[in-house]
Amino acid sequence: MTRLPTLTSFTALLALVAACGKAEEPRPARTQAQGGPAAAPAGEARRVTPGAERTVAVTFDDLPIAREGSYGPRRSEAVTTRLLAELRESGVPAIGFVNEDKLERRETSAVYTALLEEWLHAGMELGNHTFGHVSFRDTPLERYQREVLDGERVTRRLLAERGQRPRFFRHPYLNTGSTLEDKQAFEAFLADHGYQVAPVTIDNEDVVYALAYDRAYEQGDSALMRRIGQAYLEHMRESFAFYEGLSQRLLGREPAQVLMLHANALNADYLDELLGMLRGRGYGFVPIETALRDPAYQLPDTYIDAQGVSWLQRWAVTQEKDPGEEPLASDWVREAAEAETLPAVR
Fold it and tell me: Nearest CA to 172 among 5, 56, 14, 314?
């Protein structure tokens, strides 16, 4: 089996994402006039694709905002506004998966709850991402089940006010447990509480690019921001190409895909170009429940490992086939994400 990239360095980087930038509240999000990304070519991001050959559900993790300790309320509001404006204007349905521990701090609770209401007001859906974004690999089953219940209190109330209920659960780190028995017991628990697992087929390293992008923003380096943004789009092209190829090798076709993104400034600034790229690849956009009607999502999944991976790779491992090695962030982007001082763009 081709070696999958190790989890250790990626987990360390995720810890850095959560920890960095807490010394002071960042400035408001950079607008296009302040040196943000250039607009997509006219018509590209909005192009309608009648009878799209491919379909994808767009999902966002870590609501109400990723890296909320670094962004602060004002930038979080600006990022959310841009994300939702692009989704509405493009007519793309989306679901956001919530970590409700971000609503616990008294000074920001009202602001972040209002951001969740903005997602619902925009016609998007909310799902459960555990209370504190904990890994099932390191969490006993009963405590992990409590994370689900603690992680739905505000979300369930907001949905109930609109005659809805939480329906989908996304595993943090895409880790589904340390044993097959725990995995199966937890899935039964979810079903008993009205949840369906929200799998991911198009995995990627947007969190790495987003951290590098935020570091460049904090240093006022708009040229580096644009370079990172363009590299991110290329990374997403490579990621889609890899998983499309894996789909064909494994299934003989491409299922309705599920894309995982995160609610961050990079995606807010580049979502129009990302959606345009996907339309150019023949994708139409569907709600997650539509994507999950594809029979591929009924395939057996016995994958248990420390590293969370795409469901396409899980199915491959279950079938004792080569899962391939997915594209990783460019070395220079990873270095920029980890660096305290960024190099100048030449």
Answer: 14
User: What is the C-alpha separation between 321 and 324, in angstroms, rounded?
Assistant: 9
Give me the residue label for tokens 């044993």. 179
Let me know: does 130 contact 147? Beta carbons within 8 Å: yes
Q: Are 262 and 68 in contact (CB under 8 A)?
A: no
Question: DSSP of 211-230, one letter per residue?
Answer: HHHHHHHHTT-HHHHHHHHH
C-beta of residue 58 within 8 angstroms of C-beta of residue 93: yes
pTM (2 decimals)? 0.86
Q: Give pLDDT, residue 68.
A: 79
- Tokens found for residue 320: 């004792």
E-strand ranges in the chain read: 54-63, 94-98, 125-128, 168-169, 196-197, 257-262, 283-285
β-pairing verdict for 283-285 and 257-262 = unpaired
The gap from C-alpha 206 to its chain's centroid, in whole angstroms, comes to 8
**Per-residue model confidence as pLDDT tens digits over 9-41:** 444 454 444 444 333 333 333 333 233 333 333
CA dihedral 335, 336, 339, 342 (to 10 degrees): 130
The CA–CA distances, whole Å, from 84 to 92, 190, 232, 251, 315 equal: 10, 28, 20, 34, 33
What are the structure tokens assigned to 260, written together? 């995982």
Between CA 304 and CA 318 the distance in angstroms is: 10
SS3 130: coil
